[in-house]
Design a protein that fits this description.
There is one protein chain. By secondary structure, this protein is mainly α. The chain has one domain. It is 79% helix and 0% strand. Helix 4 runs antiparallel to helix 5. It is elongated and about 45 Å long.
Length: 157
């Protein structure tokens, strides 16, 4: 895949960056009091410190944006990008459920669906762009961890 010779393709990168910034903004707005809420929850001993979430999600959102852009650059709009968009919507919905509504059980069910959508995106991206698929693996691992943390918090609170 040669992208350097296609300025049109580079112009698509900001679109993916803005999409991920919107997902992050929705999460941030829903998590205004998340720090104090998180600290007030009974958490398992393996729960990460509060300060880790911001840097982790920043890196993940960058990888997710680049992944979508690579898949789009390789083939344009495909059904795989529809699944990619669906997982972005699911990603944006989790924080309001967990922190905004304190619906830990519903948030867990939602994160399970999100996990499946990420797996589907990886599977669908693989034949389009292997780098795009691989860039989503850290996201899948983090959501796996976050899902187990969500389940533990739900059961402990």
């Amino acid at each position: 895949m040669v992208i350097a010779g296609h300025p049109k393709r580079w112009s698509g990168l900001p679109v993916f960056a803005v999409a991920l910034a919107l997902v992050a903004a929705i999460g941030s707005l829903a998590a205004v009091n998340a720090g104090s809420e998180y600290l007030a929850l009974t958490r398992p001993p393996w729960a990460p410190p509060q300060w880790l979430f911001g840097p982790a999600w920043t890196v993940l959102y960058i990888l997710i944006a680049i992944s979508g852009w690579l898949a789009w650059s390789a083939r344009g709009l495909t059904p795989a990008l529809g699944v990619y968009a669906a997982q972005l919507v699911l990603n944006a919905a989790w924080t309001p459920l967990f922190f905004g509504a304190d619906r830990y059980g519903l948030a867990f069910a939602e994160i399970v669906v999100l996990w499946g959508a990420i797996v589907a995106t990886i599977v669908m991206f693989r034949p389009i762009s292997r780098p795009a698929a691989w860039l989503l693996v850290p996201y899948l691992l983090w959501v796996t961890y976050a899902g187990s943390l969500n389940l533990a918090v739900w059961l402990m609170n």
